[in-house]
Amino acid sequence: MKKWTALFTLVLLAAAGVGVWGYHQVTTLAKSPIHAKPDQLLTIEKGTTGKKLGEFLHAQGLMECSAFFPLLLKLKPELAAVKAGTYSLQGVNNLSELLTRLASGKEAQFAYRVGEGDTAKQVLAALASAAHLSQDQRESETALYHALGLPAESPAKLEGWLYPDTYYYTAGSSAVALLKRASDKMQSALTQAWAGRDKDLPLKSPYEMLILASIVEKETALDDERGQVAAVFINRLRKNMRLQTDPTVIYGMGERYQGNIRRADLNEVTAYNTYQIDGLPPTPIAMPSVASLEAVAHPAQSNALYFVANGQGGHTFSNTLGEHNRAVAHYLQQLRKQKHDNATR
Q1: DSSP string covering 284-320
Q2: Of 157, 218, 277, 278, which one is least surrounded by beta carbons within 10 A?
Q3: What is the pLDDT of residues 324-338, one digit of tens each?
Q4: d(CA 183, CA 162)
Q5: Positive or negative: CA dihedral 264, 270, 273, 279
Q6: What are the φ/ψ torsions at residue 54 (nearest 5 degrees)?
């Protein structure tokens, strides 16, 4: 009897030893370091669990081939509930942290920026090269315009309709869905600006406000000038004066613009040349910020009809043509002096 008792005790001790050893192996595996690049991503497909998950992590070089991986998942079932998606490995130091991230469902976030003053062409070009985005754009701008649910009464052009902001998305997100977020946000901002506008503005529709706001956006990047620039254009519209704004000329030139506007360009009749056409151009010329929308909705109290660069990043505003001509002469004098100073250095 004593012999069997001793043998049983020996078996229990051996089993306990194996258990302790096994637990040590599992703990060591959980703490095994992950050597990943800061920008490395890992995509987990649906159904990747258990043995498949271990094989996948080994194939990715993120885990040594270990027979204890199934045991780790059994002892820590919360680490086994990984969710499909694309994950960033930034900040992941060991296997346990990796599995915790995969089980969290917190996928990697990517950023796409619609810049203030960007054109639709620039926005769509950047979108086409955006990382990890499903490129499901429509074949034509008209089809994309309607897919975004933009106003049927406006020309089917995207120009002006995408709200400048940074938009975050996960891998595989729809490009159209991302644009829809931007267009919905712009429609909301435009609706709010139009509803709260000064009631005596010479604008017939929210779309005209969007057009004028895009011109203000391209004319100045200074927040404290937007209202003054808007006032000049509003005053000109009230007096039936042509807007005579260079950004519209540049937009109308398209690819022909190479950094300079010649006299011939100002004399060319295009739908966007506000030196040659009355009133507003047919569409916006860029994506306006909400600051430009508000500047048009509430322009500064001013009688100014002209403005010119002041050589210091801003503009000089004038009420009369005489004042404006003197401001232009002063600006040109500054340019000549600057060129002379640069040449003598």
Answers
A1: -SS---HHHHHHHHS--S----EEEE-SSSSEEEESS
A2: 278
A3: 999 888 888 887 777
A4: 5
A5: positive
A6: -60, -45
